[in-house]
């Protein structure tokens, strides 16, 4: 598209030739001729100006020598650019001759089933589902419309996915939870008879795992986004639009309200409730229920403000120790004298 069309799409002020063609989006340091670059700050602007980019997207208060578009929020405009230049999905490819589909499975309209995909007995696939190579969809699993399973995804028996769900490579949904009963002769496995349910518009990252419930369902609410390498244990329930960042984890039977954010490597102990809109900082360990809107950090997790006050105090301890040592020397005393 040309620069004028791009300005219209971004609701931007155009500075430069309206007919200038734009062919894609680039990074400030790596742009190619014909691309547009979003410059969030002065450093990015300098890099973009020095490169071969055709045009820039800058903040309303910035200016540039190259043709550019001024917008209120360059970061939001950058995300719009990615949407505008994203390639369209390929047309439905049908069922690959090396896919294995059980005769009892129900396949919706316009499917794409890759090589060595396995569709088990009594599976139901909605319309326009895309099942990548080597995926396994277990017995009686049900997938809504426009679901995408990238290569090597495993859905155990009975798993249910809503419409427009995306699951990335290596994810496993519906494996048994980590449930054992300890006895005098060892750890006895506890059966898990429930399932996993993902509501509409959920996205699950690569190598994430969501365990089936002992009874009932482990449920992930509408619009939740689950990053790579996340663990959701058996019988957890996530409200709508939660975010779980890489390597975060929920122990069994945790309940998250709506819009909860868990940063990287954070964790929540079993059977706890986290209120709507709570934010758990990176590497925090939550060991008690959280009220709506809580913001916690540290392990065990504390109110974020209190945690950072304590952290600042810890950093001052060494200075305090040096001052005490200096006072003791001035008094002619040592810690060894006190010990005796």
Task: Characterize the structure shown.
- The structure is a single chain.
- This protein folds into 3 domains: 3-85, MurE/MurF, N-terminal domain (Udp-n-acetylmuramoylalanyl-d-glutamate--2,6- Diaminopimelate Ligase, Chain: A, domain 1, 3-Layer(aba) Sandwich), CATH 3.40.1390.10; 94-302, UDP N-Acetylglucosamine Acyltransferase, domain 1, CATH 2.160.10; 304-339, no CATH class.
- It has 5 helices and 38 strands.
- The mean pLDDT is 94.
- The chain is of the alpha/beta class and 340 residues long.
- The strands form 5 sheets. A 12-stranded mixed beta sheet has the order 6-9-12-15-18-23-26-29-32-35-37-38, covered by helices on one side.
- A hairpin with a 2-residue loop joins strand 20 (180-183) and strand 21.
- It starts with a helix and ends with a helix.
- The radius of gyration is 27 Å and the shape is flat.
- Helices cover 18% and strands 28% of the residues.
């Amino acid at each position: 598209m040309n620069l004028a069309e791009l300005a219209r799409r971004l609701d931007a002020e155009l500075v430069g030739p309206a007919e200038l063609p734009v062919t894609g989006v680039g990074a400030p340091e790596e742009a190619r001729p014909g691309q547009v670059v979003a410059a969030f700050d002065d450093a990015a602007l300098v890099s973009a100006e020095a490169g071969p980019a055709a045009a820039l997207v800058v903040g309303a208060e910035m200016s540039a020598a190259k043709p550019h578009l001024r917008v209120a929020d360059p970061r939001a405009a950058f995300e719009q650019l990615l949407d505008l230049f994203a390639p369209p999905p390929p047309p439905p490819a049908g069922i690959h001759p090396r896919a294995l589909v059980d005769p009892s499975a129900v396949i919706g309209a316009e499917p794409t089933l890759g090589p060595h995909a396995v569709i088990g007995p009594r599976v139901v696939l909605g319309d326009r589902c895309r099942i990548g190579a080597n995926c396994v969809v277990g017995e009686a699993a049900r997938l809504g419309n426009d679901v995408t399973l990238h290569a090597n995804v495993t859905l155990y028996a009975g798993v249910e996915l809503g419409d427009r769900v995306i699951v990335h490579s290596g994810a496993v949904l519906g494996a048994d939870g980590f449930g054992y009963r300890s006895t005098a002769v060892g750890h006895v496995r506890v059966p898990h008879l429930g399932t996993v349910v993902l509501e509409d518009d959920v996205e699950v990252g690569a190598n994430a795992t969501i365990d089936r419930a002992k009874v009932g369902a482990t449920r992930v609410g509408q619009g939740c986004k689950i990053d790579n390498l996340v663990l959701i244990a058996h019988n957890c329930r996530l409200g709508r639009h939660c975010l779980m960042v890489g390597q975060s984890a929920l122990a069994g039977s945790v309940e998250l309200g709506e819009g909860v954010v868990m940063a990287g490597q954070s964790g929540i102990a079993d059977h706890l409730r986290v209120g709507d809109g709570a934010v758990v900082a990176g590497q925090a360990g939550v060991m008690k229920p959280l009220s709506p809107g809580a913001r916690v950090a540290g392990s065990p997790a504390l109110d974020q403000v209190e945690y950072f006050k304590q952290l600042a105090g810890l950093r001052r301890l060494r200075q305090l120790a040096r001052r005490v040592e200096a006072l003791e020397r001035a008094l002619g005393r040592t810690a060894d004298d006190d010990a005796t």
